[in-house]
Amino acid sequence: MSELYKPGDITPASGQYELTGPSGGSKGQEITSIKGHPLPPTPEPNLYYKLVDKTKHKNG
Question: Whole-prediction pTM value?
Answer without folding.
Answer: 0.86
